[in-house]
Amino acid sequence: MTTQLTPPTSASAPVSPADSAPALGASAAELVARRRKGYSLEGGFYTSPEIYDLDIDVIFSKNWIFVATAAEIPEAGDFVTVDIGKASVIVVRDDDDEIAAFHNVCRHRGSRLLEDKGFVGNIVCPYHRWTYALDGSLLHAESQPPTFDKTCFSLRKVHVRNLAGLVFICLAQDAPEDFDEVAKIVEPHLLPYQLDKAKVARQVDLPEAGNWKLVMENNRECYHCDGHPELISAYFPIFAYDAEDITPRLKPLYDRYTAAAEALEEKRKEQGTPLQDHMQLDTRVVGFQLSHLPLDGEGKSFAANGAAVCSKLIGEVKDAAFGDLSLHMQPNSWFHFLGDHAVVFSVMPTSPTTSVLRTTWLVHPDAEEGVDYDLESLCTVWNATNDQDRVLVTNTQIGCSDPSYVPGPYSMVEDQVEGFVNWYVTRLREHLGVEASA
Length: 438
Fold this sequence. Notes:
This protein is 25% helix and 21% strand. The chain is α+β, with helices and mostly antiparallel strands. It folds into 2 domains: 65-163, Rieske [2Fe-2S] iron-sulphur domain (Rieske Iron-sulfur Protein, 3-layer Sandwich), CATH 2.102.10.10; 178-400, Alpha-Beta Complex (Naphthalene 1,2-dioxygenase Alpha Subunit, Chain A, domain 1), CATH 3.90.380. The strands form 4 sheets. The protein has a 7-stranded antiparallel β-sheet, with helices on both faces. Strand 2 (78-84) and strand 3 form a beta hairpin. Mean pLDDT is 93; it is low at 1-19.
C-alpha cells in the first residue's frame, strides 16, 4: 500500500510518527515509485545505502559529470584524478593540447596509477613500471614475450568533453547524446570569459555532513537567501521568483532588480552574447539552466554593494558591470561567471550521508595576486556562503534521518528544486523500470 505523504491539516489533530512518517527502511523501488511531485524526498533517499549505490551506478556512472576546469591542467602532462564511488579516473592534458580521460587502473595487474593532481611526462605504474603515453597507449612493459602486442593494452578510455573550459566525463559505455545539443546552446554564452585560458586563483574542498542531493537542493533555491548576508549584498535574493511571487517586503528590491536587468541587457548586446536564457532542468537527460542576472549596487562582482574583486577583467569581457552568468548542470554542478572572475562548484558523494563540495575561483591569466586582486577578498563571499550552507545541509540531514520526518511541499519559488528532484527520480525510475504511483 502506498504511504500517504500528506501531513496533518490541523495542529489540533496530531498523528503519531509511526502512522504518518514513511519508513526509512523502504526499498529503493518503493521510494522511487511513491515519490510525490511537488514534495521533498523521503528520508530514505538521504540515508539508504541502497539508494547511495544507485546514485553512484545510475546518476554518477551513466551521466555527464563536471569534474574540473581546463585551467587546472593548462600544460601537457598536467593531470587531476577523480574518484566516483569505487572508480578512479585520470583527466590529463595530452601532447596535442587536448584533454583526455582514462580509468586510473594499470592494464597489467590493476594497480592505481596516479593520485590527486600533478604533472607527468608519461604515466608510469608504481608497481611494475608499465609506462603509458599521455594518449593512453602502452609504451613499455618489461619482460614480455615476443608475441606481446602493446596496442592491446592501452589505458581504458573514459568519455570526456571540454565545454569552453569546463571538463565533463561520463563512465558509461554509451554517454548521453544530448550533451552536444546543450553545448551548442551554452558555449556562445561562455566564450567571452575564455575559461580555457583562465588561471586558478584558489580551490577549496569542503566536507559536508549531508547527502549530495541535499547540497544540490540547497543550491537550487533562494528561499533561504536571507541567511546569506555577504551574498545578498550583491546578489539579488529573488532567484526563481516571478513578478507575481514578489511580496511587499521584496517589492523595492524587485524594482531595483528590474532596472539593473534592463541595463545589463544593453551590455549583453554590446558584448555580442546571446540574450535568451534557458530552463531545461528536467526536460532532457543533460538537464541544465542558464540565466544572465544583474548584480546589485555597482553590479560588478560578489563583494559588498556589488564592487569588483579583481581589477583585471576575465577573458574578453568589455564591461566590469557584466552581472552574473549563472549556469546549472545536472546532476552535480553550478557556475557563476562575472566580469572580473568566475567561480565554479561541484559536489561529489562520499557516503550515504556525506559529500564534498569543491569550489574553484578563476581569474584572467595575467591577473596578479596582491596587485590585481586580494585572495581573501576574492573568496570572502563564497567562503562565508558555503559555510552557512554547510550548517543548513547538516541540519537537514539530521532532520531527514529522524523517524518523524515527513516530506513537505515546495514553495512557489522552489521550482528549480523540483526540477532537480524530478530529473533525479526520472533517472532512477528509468533504471528500475518502475512507474510513479497514482
